[in-house]
């Protein structure tokens, strides 16, 4: 069957459908809230050479990690000749093989199922990653760890299934090294099912078209994506574009630390050089090379045509230079559990550098990484929860405001960039854990103003209805606000408050920290960061300002002082003459 554009499109969508079905399988059959409600899992299909053919619309920081991890497995642990139909390889080790090209952190378990057509010929790999609730370590929240062994049990790539037979000894070891064995078992089974779906459905594509045609078409698809990506890069002016950002900007753990980037464009090739970035630290914010590469590939997808099929071809023109032993290429034994703190900043870093080259394709800084985790006990209200320790665990990736773009406002209450997890229903969290939500709302006047404004920060408050609580939190932009572009103003910083408005109120000094004990009835208020604006706020469309004021998102005072729009507070109408005069004076 000759390759043609119609066949390319049909097979491309068939492959995407396989990856999406794998993800849906995990979400619909998992046990833990972080997967069944927050969809913190990802999937992809690779050819027999380890080149990515398709990926689900999942968590970006996961997706581009799967390829490097698969390559590590095939080059350092299991050759293709050692693989059999029915095998499933499992790993969660960030430093597997001696480099940081494995999983991103210990809770992200990666499964690899080789795809054998008719149980004879190796034709590809079905790969999934799922964020598991607990894999041991200090505790199931995201504590401030120093070394990798504090972050849970470690598995270099090992066969969980060998020729379809489960390794029962390994199975028992895994379930005995978690505080939540029921959720672990359920989520592992969901992940196994997803891998098997990928194997089955890819073989159905081969059944329909034949392996030679599938190989011909997938090679052509990757070449096509490479050509289009190179064309996008070639349209950028040759040169060097430099930017830097700060980590732990509020001074926690010896911060701030600097991440530096030089982007070099030459013809249709692009290089991301992180030389000059600070050394890795004794803490968990270090980013493995697989995660740094993931964030880089994601940012490039943001500034290139979204219609380009997402596969390994997109990555061929991109070179990543990340010196060993730095915050962007950590080495054992340093912790890396909180690598997302660094990886979110990497996206802002790349956007800042690329704003000098492709100003209309980038966006202002965003809210960064925000989440909290807590555990507590209340066997009267939640008698079935807690599993091994009788504790119930909960947490959430807390969305904030995204940066503004050249033609659009930033989004509000959205998981930022490489996270891409939805907000779990309040009811689901309250059912599974002894806590109650008090408020979730957008924070007025929190946007980064601009011709196009950023998304608004989120205000989120909950109360502990359990005993002996242990709380940990992570956020960013706690001291240096998210920056705007081309005259756009910065957004607001993040903040955490315990027992807001009460005599025992405590405003947390840092946006990260140690585990904090909580008592029954204590409340936690999170004010996320917002994003940076784009362009001069006085150039914002008057009707857009009026709409934000009418919705209660921007005050009348801010509309006048920041946007130069005079609005009557009673009638909510624009004083056109006063507005024109105010904006004329601004020029």
How would you describe this protein?
β1 (41-47) and β2 form a beta hairpin. 29% of the residues lie in helices and 21% in strands. A 7-stranded antiparallel sheet has the order 2-1-5-4-3-6-7, sandwiched between helices. Strands 14-15-20-17-18 form a 5-stranded antiparallel sheet, covered by helices on one side. A 4-stranded mixed sheet has the order 8-9-10-11. The protein folds into 3 domains: 5-227, no CATH class; 363-536, no CATH class; 541-586, no CATH class. The radius of gyration is 24 Å and the shape is globular. It is an alpha+beta fold and 587 residues long. The model has no long low-confidence stretch (mean pLDDT 95). It has helices spanning 5-29, 33-36, 60-76, 168-175, 181-209, 211-234, 289-303, 339-354, 426-432, 542-550, 556-563, 576-586; strands spanning 41-47, 52-55, 88-91, 108-117, 121-131, 158-162, 165-166, 239-247, 257-266, 269-273, 318-321, 371-377, 392-397, 435-442, 458-464, 467-474, 495-498, 506-507, 516-518, 523-527.
Rg from Cα: 24 Å
N- and C-termini, Cα separation: 64 Å
Q: How many runs of DSSP E, i.e. beta strands?
A: 20
Morphology: globular
Kindly report the average pLDDT value: 95
* Largest β sheet strand count, sense and barrel closure: 7 strands, antiparallel
Can you tell me the number of structural domains?
A: 3
Strand order of the largest sheet: 2-1-5-4-3-6-7
Q: What is the count of helical runs?
A: 12
Uncertain parts: none
Quote the beta fraction.
15-25%
Q: Helices and strands: which structural class?
A: alpha+beta
Proportion of residues in helical segments: 25-40%
